[in-house]
Amino acid sequence: MVDNKCRKNKKEKNMFKKSLLLISLSSSLVFTSASFATTATYTAQATANMNVSLTVLKACSITASDMNFGKQYSNAGDLSVQTTAAVVCTKNTPYKVSSDSSHDYEMSDTNGDKIAYSLYADQAASTPFTTGTTGTGTGVAQNINIYGKVGSSALQVAPAGDYTDTVLLSVDY
User: Fold this and answer.
1) What pLDDT was estimated at residue 10?
2) Which of 60, 68, 107, 114 is most buried by a 10 A CB count?
3) Mean pLDDT of all residues in 53-58
């Protein structure tokens, strides 16, 4: 009977150890589950600064409408017309628009006949367009008036025909 009692005590001890082990494992699982649950809902954040930059370079462009003196009789007298050039320059960029000072300013027909003319920056014809006109860019198109004149003496001696010329306009900035 002592043997049975000893065996029973050993059995009880083993069962107790197993119970403790199960309780310990269960507790670990509960604590581990709890820590996973906390990690899953917790979010961390790291930050960094990003530098953004741009260098705007100044630029200008020009377009010009044609200047047309129309159809005129040789005895029409002095002729005056106006056209415009559109200048677009980067905001706050000073510019000067002018025509080529080395140009002859003569319209020619297909036979080589010529009619002299002049271009001006003002309607009073006091500032030759070769001298130019100045402005400051706004970033949008700015119209520049160009005035043309053909003197009656040049018109009187010209044979009948179609006369043309091409003038180079420049924007210095």
Assistant:
1) 61
2) 107
3) 97
Q: Which residue ranges make up each domain of the chain?
A: 60-172
- Report the run of H or E that residue 166 belongs to, with start and end: none
**Residue count of the chain:** 173
**Nearest Cα residue to 151 out of 113, 84, 105, 111:** 105
DSSP labels for 55-112?
Answer: -PPP-EEEEEPPP---S--TTS--EEEEEEEEEEE-TT-EEEEEE-TT---EEE-TTS
Q: Which residues of 106-122 are buried (b: 16+ CB within 10 A; e: fewer)?
A: ebeeeeeebbebebbbe
Token pair listed for 30: 């509960």
Identify the residue with better confidence: 38 or 12. Answer: 12
State the Cα–Cα distance between residues 154 and 82, nearest whole angstrom.
19
CATH architecture of 60-172: Sandwich (2.60)
* Mean pLDDT, range 78-98, rounded to an integer: 98
Q: Which of 5-9, 78-82, 141-145, 166-170 has the lowest mean pLDDT?
A: 5-9
pTM for this model (two decimals): 0.71
Instruction: Enter the tokens of residue 73.
Output: 């009789």
Q: Are 93 and 138 in contact (CB under 8 A)?
A: no
- Residue 115, helix vs strand vs coil: strand
SS3 label, residue 13: helix
Q: Which residues pair with 146 in a beta bridge?
A: 83
